[in-house]
Specification:
Layout: H1 8-14, H2 20-24, E1 34-42, E2 49-57, H3 58-66, H4 71-74, H5 80-88, H6 92-98, H7 101-105
Antiparallel strand pairs: 1-2
Length: 117
Amino acid sequence: MLFEVLNISDILNIYSDRPLTTLNLQEPLMTKKMESRTITKKSMFSGKTHTLVITAPVEEWKLWEKGLELIQHALPSLTAAEREFLITGSTDEEFNTLFPENLAIRGEDIFEDDIPF
């Protein structure tokens, strides 16, 4: 026989040493069960408290909660700003004010007078 026909359990056993995200992200987001969470965090930069509602697939939340994956691998469906909020508690506006070099990359101008602290 030139090749072997494998069933799904054989395939899962072969790839069982790979991170769950490698297998789970093959499925479109529309078919995944989504969960919205209201997250309140204190910004490690300004000390201000912010609240954000973040929606992601349930499986991605579970991966992140286990702490075995980097946030960008566990929660790839989130924006970079949402992931930054989960890590540092800073909003996108606050982060961009503190790190204006990120704005320059996107072609936006920022001046010292624009920085509130």
